[in-house]
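Project outcomes to date are best conveyed with an example. Our students and postdoctoral researchers have been running inverse folding experiments weekly, and each run begins with a structure described purely in tokens. The record below, which covers 390 residues, was selected by the lab manager from last quarter's runs and is presented without edits.
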């Protein structure tokens, strides 16, 4: 057996050596671990970090998408089963996966569920029940908790799974969540105020994906503009309809000027003049009103006017900033307008010092120097495991 008491398997070549290196390096700074697929990065890293949790630190396990948050928790379940470790760990998901009320409205996207909750929370029976009857112990005895464990228990108790997991987060030792909660400062605060990042070791799994991360990026299409115009007409808002109609003409002109698959940079202020900013605000207000009305009628709270207004407000705000690109792409019979934020290295570099320590791991981190440069990491300890398992 391994001398690492939380490692649940008979060690294979390089695993103990890697655990020793991580243990040594993590005390000094960030670690970049390149190890081939099948090496067992997850149990190796967990086995090193669990003693740190016993000493009062926490662990954030960041994965590329919400769908992957269960993986480290499944591995922890094996460790708990084999070692009897007592730990509160959970897989964290957004409202889209954790809202019980949204089931009444069919398939909603992230922003629609968020909107639903902001409008209905006070009267939501699951939220009221959460406030009155939430009991940590029912969840704790099932830890480590997959998101489906939390959802299932909450559903049975008829309490809100989303707020239940947030209450658990406050006392959790380890949380697995998507990169977005780490790299996006707009989302970060919702977690950070419950789970102190400065006392946490961050593990970024499949970290090579950080090189392609799209922060602050946004898009709409010519279709969005056309639907927004129809909405303004249907809701009898002639001034807003005129404004959107002008905008549609400009976007349409750009669409016709491009060949198939061609793309071109555009300037937001050439589409919306300062004298029209007020109309943009009104379009947004009408979009919000439409969303509210749809919700009241039990429909998806969706509005193209709202989406259009949010996109252009953001585009106008970002215009002129270094590292921001506005690109129009012609895709068959549609035009896609993109805001691309290319300040990733700069933004990412500001994230890592927030944590106590960071571990970046992947099967494709090489060359590590180039990876570190792209994510804005100056000092780190590299570990390379040879490709013996491929
Ligand atoms: S409180 Fe929970 S169940 Fe109710 S709307 Fe919000 S996320 Fe959904």
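After processing, the design step wrote out the following sequence:
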């Amino acid at each position: 057996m391994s001398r690492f008491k939380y490692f649940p398997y008979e060690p294979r070549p390089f695993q103990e050596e890697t655990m020793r290196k991580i243990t040594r390096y993590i005390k000094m700074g960030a670690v970049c671990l390149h190890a081939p697929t099948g090496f067992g990065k997850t149990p190796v890293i967990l086995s090193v970090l669990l003693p740190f949790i016993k000493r009062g630190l926490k662990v954030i396990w960041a994965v590329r998408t919400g769908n992957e948050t269960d993986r480290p928790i499944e591995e922890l379940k094996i460790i708990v089963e084999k070692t009897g470790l007592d730990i509160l760990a959970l897989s964290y998901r957004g409202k889209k996966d954790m809202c019980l009320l949204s089931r009444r409205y069919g398939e909603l996207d992230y922003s629609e569920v968020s909107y639903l909750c902001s409008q209905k929370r006070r009267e939501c029976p699951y939220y009221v029940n959460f406030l009155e009857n939430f009991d940590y112990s029912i969840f704790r005895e099932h830890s480590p908790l997959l998101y489906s464990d939390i959802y299932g228990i909450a559903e049975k108790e008829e309490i809100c799974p989303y707020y239940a997991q947030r209450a658990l987060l406050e006392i959790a030792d380890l949380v697995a969540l998507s990169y977005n909660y780490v790299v996006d400062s707009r989302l970060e605060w919702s977690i950070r105020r419950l789970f102190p990042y400065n006392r946490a070791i961050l593990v970024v799994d499949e970290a090579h994906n950080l090189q392609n991360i799209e922060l602050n990026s946004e898009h709409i299409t010519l279709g969005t503009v056309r639907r927004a115009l129809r909405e303004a007409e249907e809701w009898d808002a002639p001034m807003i309809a005129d404004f959107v109609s002008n905008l549609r003409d400009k976007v349409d002109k750009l669409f016709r000027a491009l060949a198939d698959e061609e793309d071109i940079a555009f300037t937001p202020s050439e589409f919306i003049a300062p004298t029209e900013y007020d109309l943009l605000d009104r379009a947004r207000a009408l979009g919000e009103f439409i969303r509210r009305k749809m919700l009241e009628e039990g429909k998806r709270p969706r509005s193209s006017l709202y989406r259009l207004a949010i996109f252009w407000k953001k585009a106008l705000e970002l215009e002129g900033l270094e590292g921001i690109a506005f690109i129009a792409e012609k895709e068959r019979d549609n035009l896609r307008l993109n805001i691309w934020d290319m300040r990733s290295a700069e933004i990412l570099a500001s994230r890592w010092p927030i944590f106590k320590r960071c571990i970046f791991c992947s099967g494709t981190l090489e060359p590590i120097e180039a990876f570190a440069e792209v994510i804005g990491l100056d000092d780190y300890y590299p570990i390379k495991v040879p490709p013996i398992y491929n």
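The chain has two domains: 15-213+344-384, 216-341. The domain at 216-341 is CATH 1.10.275.40 (Fumarase C; Chain B, domain 1). The training component of this project remains on track.
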